[in-house]
Amino acid sequence: MATPFERKRRRALGEHLTPVRLFQDYILPEVEPLLAQYRWVDLFAGRGDLIFPLLELVPLADRADFFREHIFLYDIQPEMVECCVRRAVQLGVPESLARQNIRQQDTLAIYPTEILESPLPVYHITNPPYLYLGYIVKHPETQPYLKYFEGINAGYQDLYQIALINDLRHGIQKMAYIIPSNFLFGFSNANKIRDDFLPFYEIRKAVVFERELFEHTGVHVVICFFERKEKPAREPQRFDGLKIDHKVHLRHYYLSPAFHYRAGSEFEEFTLRYRAKRPLKVEYYLYREMMESHRGNLPLMVVDANEFTGREYRQHLFYVDETLFNMVRANPLFVRTLDTGTQDGRAGLYLIPEVFGADGIMVSKAPYRTHPIQIFLEPAMPYEDVLLLKDYFNLLLEYFRKKTDSEFMTTYKYSESAYTRKYLGLSQVRALIETFPYLDISSAQREQLRQAVRAGDVEAVVRLLESNATGGDLSLWL
Questions:
Q1: Do residues 297 and 169 both lie within one domain?
Q2: pLDDT tens digit string along 111-148?
Q3: What single string gives the DSSP state of each residue in 99-158?
Q4: Residue 413 domain flag
Q5: Which domain holds residue 457?
């Protein structure tokens, strides 16, 4: 078990050493057939676990010659360099040769161009340091790393992104990177690196892990196999990936440059494409101050989202005026932004009276986005149409969760639940509600929508939405 000091030290270095099985199971089968064709390099070598297994494939008598031309290792920490030297010697490499090709160097700041001085192309296999800029700025021990983000690197958000862009600038042909999965799924924290990097490289394959891998961090990671394009082009990318959580399953990924090459963008594309011409206005939270300022004679039962005792939220009875009474009672929906881990507790829209036996959900202190949040819609709708919105929202949400394996949502926590728990952002809730064409369609169309939703017929729902839009290709979503 790592001590708090060790965890902090590794965090400060952005160091998360690669589990050996990770290489053996997912990287070695891809690169072993190419053994003699490349110069194998790791610029953030650690103990060398991503390169030395390749040397072990070479007959003992040939290892020194192979090592001389095919293997180069670098690390910023002298103790890691010494570890790699000892390991090379144990595998049959003379120490002088080992020290020639295993070097201490800050490769984020100074790229070792000598690796390019060979007829052999470079294949860079690495688990680079990860440390995001927001953390670096806030901690004195990491602030020296701010130098990496200056000049031509301004705008990047993590150390691993500096490693990627350095490889791009030096024309590396092939890479296998173990990096945070926000490279594929992140929004603002990864838009720039994807926009800058993926016009030059295609992702040939990926392995996405939705379970913890490293002893000292819960960072979610992906193995990406990159291959440089013959000519740079901003074009969609499609590739197969393995998704590993409670089981292993195959996923097909589509990255669109229109959405910064972000995986799981189908949900965002849908909500932009089918936003209603006159969308419902959405507001969140019922604050205690509002309750206090609307005192009156009408009884309103609310649960306090900030007071959870035992297994339930504390209830309060307020007497309020007619304005607030009518507003709260006309808006019985709340959003559960966070999966509970059970199938009947997934993120979505729910009825406050059914779940809490109350009229509203009050915020008495600070609002938290993981609490149940009451939704206020304008204009107010008849109860039957509130139910239609709830069922419409949940039908489409579950459809996109299935289609993208919930990858448009944020992974909240790995657990032994039947599925990986996810968080649905409030901006995503608003975007999906704004596709509900309540003000755009006739009463007859609304009845058609009601029947399609009741039948769980997503294709029929989209056809109705399409009738209110112009152009478009349904095949992207259906």
A1: no
A2: 999 999 999 999 999 999 999 999 999 999 999 999 99
A3: HHHEEE--TTTS--GGGGSSSSPEEEEE-----BHHHHHH-TTTGGGGGGGSGGGTT--B
A4: yes
A5: 281-476
